[in-house]
């Protein structure tokens, strides 16, 4: 098993109209900084590799980079941490605020592709507040998946905080289901986190395994 390359991943995301944070891959620090300045700070830096499944564990992720000085320092640290590792490059990505969600898919020998949804970030590790369906799923099943999790009230909005765009979220679930059905070479996928707010639902971190 290996992780799909960034360019191949990007093609799949665009093919199924899956919205994701503005992201590009670089091996040139100068070009990477120019892109960061183009999309505006703050940005995120992270390695992309076909063989490293947990990039945070090797110091391959830096978030909340506010300016060019912080960018250059973060680039240096990531480059040092990933020396002797087989990396494809370093991703530069815009930072988007919102609720962190997770969406995944795995192929089961008996049932085929199974889609998973839940609260993302550290919540998936601690609370394991998730729901599952066998693909393909329709709009009704996508809504059920979202409403099933215990954290659904967080997504509706509370104490004056706006909720997320539930329609865009359920649309994303259906798109992932379609991808799972049609792209049989993809054994599993992990989108964690997905950043969701009242205006957009964007995949921030993506891992497709073949």
Give the helix/strand class: alpha+beta
Instruction: Please give the domain count.
Output: 2
Number of strands: 12
What's the CATH topology name of the largest domain?
D-amino Acid Aminotransferase, Chain A, domain 1
CATH class of the largest domain: Alpha Beta
Low-confidence stretches: none
Mean pLDDT: 95
First-residue to last-residue Cα separation: 6 Å
Give the helix proportion (percent range): 25-40%
- Per CATH, the architecture of the largest domain is 2-Layer Sandwich
Task: Briefly characterize the structure.
34% of the residues lie in helices and 30% in strands. The protein is of the alpha+beta class and 210 residues long.
Structure report:
The protein has 210 residues and is α+β, with helices and mostly antiparallel strands. The protein folds into 2 domains: 73 residues, Dna Ligase, domain 1, CATH 3.30.1490.20; 111 residues, ATP-grasp fold, B domain (D-amino Acid Aminotransferase, Chain A, domain 1), CATH 3.30.470.20. The strands form 3 sheets. Strands 5, 6, 7, 10, 11 and 12 form a 6-stranded antiparallel β-sheet that branches. Strands 1-4-2-3 form a 4-stranded antiparallel β-sheet, covered by helices on one side. A two-stranded antiparallel sheet has the order 8-9. Helix 2 crosses helix 3 and helix 5 packs across helix 7. The radius of gyration is 17 Å and the shape is globular.
